[in-house]
Design goal:
The protein is of the alpha/beta class and 190 residues long. It contains seven helices and nine strands, in the order E-E-E-H-E-H-E-H-E-H-E-E-H-H-E-H. It is globular. The strands form two sheets. A seven-stranded mixed sheet has the order 5-4-1-6-8-7-9, sandwiched between helices. Strand 4, helix 2 and strand 5 form a beta-alpha-beta unit. Helix 3 packs across helix 5. The protein has one domain: Spore Coat Polysaccharide Biosynthesis Protein SpsA, Chain A (Alpha-Beta Complex).
Length: 190
């Protein structure tokens, strides 16, 4: 398959509320930080690997070409990270992935990239959109900025208005397992 050039954004900028305030991307799973697992999968795809992080930049720097942070440091949610990523991306498409999904694989990424075009491409599971697993045309930065200025903070609502292309995944697809609590992080097998 001829894979288009894309920027990659790893979302690592949250508060880590479910993790007791710990920075999720830096928590270890099977001996390595969560961000390292994603880095290994996406590094070969892009010369523009961006990490959205609002703290611990020195720890994230080895895993990215560039770091971005939310303009407003009050942790406005993942849409703020996507907004910062779209503003920084150098390619016409930007692959977005959350830092707490270390089991993502090349076949799922290839499925997103295969639909590269003028519309967002979003994972859908059991009829529900998974907006933090998506491929976005960077030209949508203006649309996001307009939505942001009107108070939108939900990636799901913003993307729903753009008629995304769906990449359907089976129920309980392990590649989408979000290790976003201490219990899940401890129990999830490799």
């Amino acid at each position: 398959m001829n894979i288009p050039s894309c920027s990659v954004l790893l979302l690592c900028g949250g508060r880590g509320q479910r993790m007791g305030g710990a920075d999720k991307g830096l928590l270890t799973w099977h001996g390595r930080p969560l961000v390292a697992w994603l880095h290994d999968v996406v590094r070969p795809l892009s010369d523009d690997l961006i990490i959205s992080c609002n703290r611990n930049a020195e720890h994230y720097r080895p895993y990215a070409d560039r770091l971005v942070e939310d303009q407003d440091r009050t942790f406005q949610g993942p849409l703020a990270g996507i907004r910062a990523g779209l503003a920084a991306a150098r390619h016409e498409q930007m692959l977005v992935l959350p830092c707490d999904a270390p089991r993502i694989d090349h076949s799922l990424i290839d499925a997103l990239l295969a639909h590269s075009g003028n519309r967002p491409v979003v994972i859908r599971q059991n009829g529900f959109w998974e907006p933090l697993f998506c491929l976005l045309p960077t030209a949508l930065g203006q649309s996001l900025e307009q939505a942001w200025q009107t108070g939108e903070r939900s990636p799901q609502r913003w993307l729903a208005g753009l008629e995304p292309v769906a990449v359907d995944c089976p129920p309980d697809d392990p590649r989408l397992a979000n290790l976003n609590s201490p219990d899940l992080l401890a129990l999830e097998p490799l």
